[in-house]
Specification:
Length: about 290
């Protein structure tokens, strides 16, 4: 490697002198990013900016690149090309182990690593150490109170002493969000938080996420989903992905439209918006997506 260069990805060297300066108002700032693995382009070309008080939904069909994009935002992947600034830090120059505790993440990949015998309370409080499960860490009264408060705000306080493996899917999702919030993160990333929930569980979670979205002290949030019905009221922006690329992004009402959904999902989609919620179904009008 030449002096003055940093390795930003397996295949890309970025000249130190040529790195963009981070904008402190942007929590996520991706510019002309590609993420490639095994000869395939998972994401890109894509540019995306998330500001401090924004609540984003990332929506798209299976395989669109949503989880891959979230992994870039979570500082778990480096772009193969382009530049990525996360929480004002230049990816490739920052120690990601210091960056990750500032990001709250709830995902099925994390859920799969949780031992079934872990108690709910330990799972939440141990987030501060970025570990799964308690070992010999010590926690002060404030940590204990915060863990209880978060569990209560997500309707899971009564589960505090239960083993994670005994929880229902809906209970698990709520507990994982409590854990993601435990470190008071600057950025909250939720990958399909309503996946696997029944109608009641989904509606309960959507209502709780709407309360979080309306809280001015809550972190900037990015929620990944396949379904417009899972978008909580109060979310401000949307990014619609298809085959790794952007179909549309910006203010939510401009992006979540029948035309854009039809293009992303490659079939004619009809959309209703009621009380800040969206509802989609296949349209009988053929060919809308081709337009
Ligand atoms: N390590 C990898 N190597 C090659 N291809 C990969 C790798 N990881 C993911 N992919 C592919 O990249 C594409 C995007 O995957 P990703 O999981 O980001 O999509 P997604 O939108 O989250 O999908 P889903 O909604 O089904 O969860 C998929 O086609 C997937 O098979």
């Amino acid at each position: 490697m030449q002096p003055g260069t940093v390795r930003a990805a397996d295949s890309v060297l970025v000249q130190d002198g040529g790195v963009r300066e981070p904008d402190p108002d942007l929590l996520i700032d991706l510019q002309d990013v590609h993420l490639r693995r095994g000869g395939a382009t998972l994401v890109g070309p894509l540019s995306w900016r998330v500001e401090l008080d924004e609540r984003w939904v990332v929506l798209g069909p299976n395989g669109a690149g949503k989880t891959s994009l979230l992994r870039l935002a979570a500082a778990q992947e480096f772009p193969s090309a382009g530049s990525a600034h996360i929480l004002g830090e230049v990816m490739g120059r920052v120690d990601t182990s210091e960056l990750r505790p500032r990001i709250g993440l709830s995902s099925s990949a994390l859920a799969a690593r949780i031992p079934g015998e872990e108690t709910v309370f330990d799972l939440v409080i141990s987030a501060g150490y970025a570990v799964l499960g308690r070992w010999r860490e010590s926690y002060d009264r404030m940590d204990v109170d915060r863990a209880h408060e978060l569990l209560e705000s997500l309707g899971a306080e009564h589960l505090a002493d239960r083993m994670y493996g005994t929880l229902s899917e809906g209970e698990r999702k709520r507990v994982l969000i409590a854990r993601a919030l435990m470190t008071d993160p600057e950025l909250l990333l939720l990958d399909e938080p309503a996946a696997g929930l029944d109608l009641g569980g989904r509606e309960d979670l959507v209502a709780r996420l709407a309360v979080l979205a309306a809280d001015p002290d809550a972190p900037a949030t990015v929620l990944v989903t396949h379904h417009v019905e899972e978008i909580p009221p109060g979310f401000s922006h949307a990014l619609l992905l298809s085959e790794g690329g952007v179909v549309a992004q910006g203010l939510i009402d401009d992006v979540i439209t029948a035309e854009n959904l039809s293009a992303a999902f490659r079939q004619s989609i009809a959309l209703d918006a009621v009380d800040g919620r969206y509802f989609a179904r296949r349209s009988r009008v053929a060919g809308r997506h081709r337009a």
